[in-house]
Amino acid sequence: MAHRLQMKLGVVAESDRLSSSADTVVVVEPSIGSISRSKGQLYVLVTAPVVGHRTQEATRLAAETIQNEYYYDESAGIRVCLEKAIIAASKRLSHVRDRYALGSNLAAGPIGVGVAVVRGNELYVATVGPAEAYLIRGARLSTLPDPHRERGLPSQDLEPDVWRGEISVGDSLVLISPNMVSSLGPDELKDAMLTLHPQSAMEHLHHRFVIAGGQGSDGAIAFEASEVAVTHKGRTLVPVRPAEPLAGAADRGPIPLADSVGDGVAAVQAGARQARAAAGSALQRAIHRAQDVLPQRSAAYRRVTPMSSRVEAQRRAAVAILAFIIVAGGLGLGIYAFGGQRPPGDAIASVTSGQKALADARATLTKVFGPGIDLVDADPKKAFDLLTAADASLTVAEDAGIPVTTTRPLRAQIVTGIDRLSGMLDVHDAVIFTFEGGEAPFDLQQVIRGPDRDPVPYVLDRGTQSVYRISLADGKATLVLRAGQEAAGATADEPRLLAVGGPDLLILDARNVLWRWRPADTTGKGTLVPIPVNGSTGWGDDVRGIGTYVRNAEDGLYNLYVVEPSEQQILAFSPARDGSGFPVPPSGRLATARAVDTMTSLYIDGDIFVVENGLIERFVSGRSDGWEPTLPNDTLLRKSPVFTLIASGSERRKGRLYGFDPSNRRVLALDKADGRFREQFRLAGDARDWSDLRSYYVVAGVDGAPDKLVWISVDGIHEVELEAAIGGPAASGSPDISGASPSGPNASAAPAP
Q1: Pick from 144, 133, 119, 161: which is nearest to 221 by CA?
Q2: Which residues contact 23 (CB under 8 A, 6 or more apart)?
């Protein structure tokens, strides 16, 4: 049976919109069949980055112009009509520029337009200026088309780009202001559209935007294609009846004398009805005459109550109601005061049980930390059991009414003991570089150690869409690449990912063009060129990570690895012999294709380590080899770790792998060979700086020196020596108190992963 599509619409109600927003939303769903078949359904979003009543009038004028011009124009197809409608709106805003003071507002940003048309299963989308369109298909989020925020309305040489595609059941489209996307992020937008109805999704996103302190532009439209069956209704069956019901019947009955008897009975019945009616009329007349003879009572005079009497009656009623409320309230308070209290015996019993639990906790802690006793070093397993029992006793004591001020010192001893048992070390943080000033606010996203000939930090900044080389010797930041920069006949787009391969720094931009920066010396000079990668144009905008592995150190040749969700693989590219690029088609490094969308970190040293769904996994020869890290048994104090980043500075299956657990703001050190937990680190003084840790790399220690962790916050570079700070808790040899015996493969040499 044939089917058609129906759009489930979601918009934010005008009453819920922010007063500081000047955006305008227009939705047109024609009710006339001919218009719906020829023009389809129109969805318009007009955004403005500035606030003001005139700006709102300008956005409304642009939206109405696009709607009227699109449905009035019958001279061409949908694509051409949309382009002409947007150009007409731009011209009209240019004519009334002075009226709406657009000349001054353009300094803060142009007016953006997002338009979508759905006709049947055809979808047309166009965006101009600060307006974004996202297509959600198969749990993947795509941008349609690529927005250019530097242009907008009004503009003299505007050439709108209209994207055309197919829309199927389950597909969703969102037209939204970039102000909301920058505040919430595209991942939250995708999650809301996949799990909620479009209307509920828009209300949820707007609510989150308001809670996050969002101001200004908040326009958004969303619709989802659903399936509606086209049914066929047949004609209603009508029973056939003869025109004359008695057609063909005999004039007289077949039984002799039956008709005469029936007529007689009917005559008798009619006479009886007439007699009954006559008798009833006579009885009614007699009753009415008797009522007329009875004596009648005259009507009473109307009484008028004075206003003073009425007010006095109301006052007395109010006093009575108030007295009733006071009496009822007094009775309730008396019942609560005397009948609701706990009997003295129960209170004494509770205090007694609390004091007993407190005494048990103190006695248990004395067994662990008594004079001349330190079970944390002597018997870690027994110390852990005793500390767990002491914590349970303190919980019972607090529930029984023992003040927290009394139990706090005892809990501090338990925390110190568990930290020592779980190898928790306090470390000091030092700020080694800070970004200041600049045209746009800095938003550092990734840091990586440079090549061996230039081992200084290189950072990727999303705020300025640039990559910088940081010289720690003189405290200078040197620009390596910026969006829009031209080099070797090509123009760079916004940088997205960094990696180091041999003597080169690799930069992947938003158009999946791979750039190579090769330092000339240690002063910040070098050469920047794009290098070709076979099939890179087919990658989507969701590449999860890139990495390298040096295969020929003398010639500076290295393999390139790309985590590509659309291929469900970790793609491996072999270099050309002259190192000019990666011309050969890639091979998949996973033995079986699998979803890699949730991979958040990639580290390669001969083995491939990834962080997926908060867990660390190691791949050897394309398969997970069973390497599984043991974890500290400190769930009494902290949640189980959920990793997001990994890094190491040592060779294959030597040294330690460091994983970051953001929920507990700690870094865990794991043995690379067998996954055994070694120790964990947190910033001294319970500092919360690691709540803003975005990326890091590790510098391996030399000649017994501790490893160093170099990490970035939103606008600074920090350095931490991974050894216990003075005054922090000392590790007790990182004892294994979990009872697990980690296992792993032997640390042997292996070819490239």
Answers
A1: 133
A2: 17, 45, 46, 47, 48, 59, 177, 217, 218, 219
**Could you tell me the end-to-end alpha-carbon distance of the chain, in angstroms, rounded to an integer?**
53
- The DSSP bridge partners found for residue 712 are 695, 717
| Residue recorded with tokens 């935007």 | 209
E strand or H helix that includes residue 349:
helix 344-369
Using DSSP, state whether 117 is helix, strand or coil.
Answer: strand
DSSP 160: -
CA pair distance 424, 734, nearest whole angstrom: 9
Name the pLDDT band for 679 (thresholds 50, 70, 90): very high
Q: How far is CA 135 from the centre of its chain?
A: 16
- pLDDT category at 576 given cuts 50, 70, 90 is very high
Which amino acid, residue 262? G
Query: What percentage of the chain exceeds 90 in pLDDT?
Result: 53
Provide the token pair at 267.
């005559």
In this structure, are strands 444-449 and 615-620 parallel, antiparallel, or unpaired?
unpaired
**Which of 64-73, 163-172, 234-243, 534-543 comes out lowest in average pLDDT?**
234-243
Which of 48-52, 154-158, 221-225, 548-552 ranks highest by mean pLDDT?
221-225
Do residues 681 and 423 make contact, with C-beta atoms less than 8 angstroms apart? no
Determine the longest span between alpha carbons in the chain, in angstroms: 137
In the β-sheet with 645-647, what is the strand arrangement from edge to edge? 424-427, 677-683, 666-671, 656-661, 645-647
- Provide Rg for the chain, Cα atoms: 41
- DSSP assignment string, 446-504: EEEE--TTS-SEEEEETTTTEEEEEETTTTEEEEEEETT-EETTEE---EEEEEEETTE
b/e map of 81-104 (b: 16 or more CB within 10 Å)? Answer: bbbbbbbbbbebbeeeeeebebee
Name residue 111's amino acid: I
Mean pLDDT for 636-658 is 92
- DSSP-derived 3-state class of residue 163: strand
**Residues 700, 657: contact at Cβ < 8 Å?**
no
At 3, the pLDDT band (50, 70, 90 cuts) reads: low
Can you tell me whether residue 340 is helix, strand or coil?
A: coil
Reduced to 3 states (helix: H, G, I; strand: E, B; else coil), residue 247 is coil
Instruction: For the sheet with 457-461, list strands across it.
Output: 444-449, 457-461, 466-471, 476-482
- φ, ψ for residue 561 (rounded to 5)? -120, 135
Using left for φ > 0, alpha for ψ between -120 and 50, and beta otherwise, residue 655 falls in left
**pLDDT range class, residue 733, cuts 50, 70, 90:** very low
Residue 179, burial from CB neighbour count under 10 angstroms (0-12, 13-18, 19+)? buried
| Rounded-to-integer distance, Cα 670 and Cα 55, Å | 57
CA nearest neighbour of 63 among 48, 80, 74: 48
Running DSSP on this structure, what letter comes out for residue 582?
Answer: B
Locate 52 and state its tokens: 């003001």
126 or 53, greater pLDDT: 126
d(CA 77, CA 115): 15
Identify which has the larger pLDDT, 120 or 745: 120
